[in-house]
Known about the structure:
Chain A is mainly alpha-helical. Helix content of chain A is 75%, strand content 0%.
Amino acid sequence: MSAKSPSLVMLRRNVKHIARNPTSVFNAVLMPIVIMLMFVYMMGDAFDVGVDYIDYATPGLILLAVCYGLGATATSVNSDMTKGIINRFKVMDVSRGAVLTGHVVASVLTNLIAIAALVGVAFLLGFSPSAGLLDWLGVVGVVVLLGFAAGWLTVALGLAAKSPETAGLSSIPLVMLPFFSSAIVPAEKMGPGLREFAEYQPFTPIIETIRGLLNGAPDTGDAIAALAWCVGIALVGYLWARSTFDKRA
Amino acid sequence: MPTPAIAVSGLRKVYGDKVVLDGIDLEVPAGTIFSLLGPNGAGKTTTVNVLSTLMRADGGTVRVAGHDVATEARAVRAAIGVTGQFAAVDELLTGRENLRLMVDLNGVPAARGKRIVTELLERFDLTESAGKPSSTYSGGMRRKLDLAMTLVGDPRIIFLDEPTTGLDPRSRRTMWSIIRELVADGVTIFLTTQYLEEADQLADRVAVLDQGRLVAQGTPAELKRQIPGTHVRLLFTAGPELDAAARLFPGATRDDEALTLRIPSDGGTRSLRALLDRLDEHSLSAEEFSVHTPDLDDVFLALTGHTTEATT
């Protein structure tokens, strides 16, 4: 292979970074599992959700796993910007977006690894979805789409932050958001105000879509809303990231 | 006349209401070393950033390798290499991986890429540490790796922004000899420095940048000619002695604060003996005596009315 795509070269660089920085992997892969164990064993019995709690919570935890990977992405984008290396890439005759695409794709890959681990543990805990092969492919599709959308938004946050430390913090709202959705408990069990928020925030239709797919009965309305949110977030994140990237010399 | 490697005219750059570059004109013929000399904050890095397509100018035209930096940025980028003030290496990657990254980004075929990496590691004396993460490298090694990464794409014009700032004298000399080798291969070098000695050592032409303007341009020898010639410097212990000595040499300039007297001289033994005899006759003795040949430090002082903040 003589001419490698710059995005692919950048992706390989990001993958090496992740492999050499195990704490970020810890956060992205182990934290969702820890949270899963905590909710299923400690609090699961307290929630009456009509089905086995593990079956209810896994879709939400999948989404949480996507969000937990983002902190590392924001931090690594920002350290690229605050160190000299970015200027080297910028003065080379390679596509300027490649370095950002590399980060986004690496972020999605981390998500997939984290989710594979999470779903594996869920099965050990008795997770029994009724999804067929097509439904599973649908889940992967939603996860990848969400990963891309959240990835671009996180790259933008990472670019906008002053230092790697604040960049890591900037993704915290995204990590918190799933808790105020139907991830852990159904929205209708929440108090007024919070309930409306949970019903209309982007993560709820995404979780409900995954939940529907895993139950073998996806809801078209949720799926369309989920798709629209993902495309919207991806677009905003992408445009914001590109304009911030061009501005920061 | 062949196209100059770099041609800049009327370059302006403004941050908010602060004028950073105020009408820079310069031309660098291909295959030469041009040095932009100035203290911190003079606008050197801004100039490099505009010339290397990192920043847009607010006025004027800049052509690098025959291409306009504003409208043909990609063509410019394909021709240049930049080694900035802060080593632009990937700290999590090893030295070899950093070079590989450049090989891949430049689209060099794998076999040739491997050879280039090995050659560069050898040339920059980095073979031994090639497998270690670059975060473990010393400052000098990082600069060398940085420059090696710049060379992967075989650029014909190289910008070096303060390549030796913060390096120990030995690493500085290594860097200098690498720069000389590059020019011997026909590469054009645009070098910024705050070290007058560095410009004097390396550059074919020097431009002195002060507060966003070029206050002088020429060969190091030409610049030296613009200022008072060789002189003798006498340091006295007390004011009255300085007064007495100043009366003896009407052509001299005195510095009351430093208690020194600068007397123009050709530096030859005959005139020096005459000068010392003259002091003896009047029973005057100086604490210190030195013959001073002008260097670029003096040029800077003469041109800008202030000294450089950081000198070697």
